[in-house]
Amino acid sequence: MTTAITILVDGLSYASWLFIVALGLTLVFGVLKILNIAHGSFYALGAYAAASFVGWFATLKLAPEWSLVAMLFAAVAVAALVAPLTERGLLRFFYGRDEVLLVLVTYALFLMLEDITKLVWGANPYYVSEPYAMFGNIEIGEQIYVGYDFMLMGLAAVVGIAVWWGLNRTRQGKIVLAVIHSEEVASSMGVNVSRVYMLAFAVGIFLACIGGAFTAPLISVQPGISVGVIIVSFAVVIIGGLGSIEGAAIGALIVGLARAAAVHLAPQVELFAIYVVMALVLVFRPEGLFQRIQARKI
User: Fold this and answer.
1) Which candidate, 30, 207, 230, 243, has a CA 20 to 30 Å from the CA of 173?
2) pLDDT category of residue 289 using cuts at 50, 70 and 90
3) Where does the sequence pass through the membrane (predicted)?
4) How many domains is the chain built from?
């Protein structure tokens, strides 16, 4: 029983930040039809910026609670700076082109951002320890868990509900859904599709950055963290179905629990347990568990 609870808590903790990152990836694909290889680099930028902002706030002798505000500010700052430069300065010139070309463009952007992070922050690791101890420990049965992990679960729930509500209960969100369904029809109805692309891409980048910022206290922020994140994020959206919010949530939960079960029960298969699960899902549901319905072309 203790092992089962530990697997559940660890799996939910891992799935929480992964869901936030994968949600941004699936949102960008759903609206812009881009498999954004550089999404992991935006995650890394959020983590590096959070480390810098938390350190800066610490020099101001502010209360530890301000470190959470610093991480949020870091995500907002990176998204506000990087999203317009990337979407307006690069991606917009390739809309309507072959999907493989867009993948290659985002891969080139990924390589450039990897070097840019090294130029800005160097090759030494950064550690963000202040927020991790803020929430204390929580005792469940015979085990003691870090409270920060439960905060991440709550953050994932808030982010998921906010994105769902924004898409389904607001005017701007319904415009985005119209563009997802058919950008040609939406454009003919007077919708500024270019502006919708910019908005969706900015939100997607913000989700990647906030995922990186709030996982910075859990990891060593160093070069290379973007590679593992983008691979696992693709596994999540492939399992759940590209372009589906519900799929991102279920996919992250499946990946998180599979990884946690492998770590605790069979550590030797931890490296490829996620991909075994992905392969099994694709055998029976090649389109993913929650693939959105495609509009019929006439």
Assistant:
1) 230
2) confident
3) 14-35, 42-60, 66-87, 99-123, 143-167, 196-219, 225-242, 272-290
4) 1
Q: Which domain holds residue 233?
A: 2-284
Q: Which residue from 199, 200, 220, 185 is spatially nearest to 44, judged by alpha carbons?
A: 220
Q: 26 near 242, Cβ under 8 Å?
A: yes
The predicted structure's pLDDT at residue 298 = 35
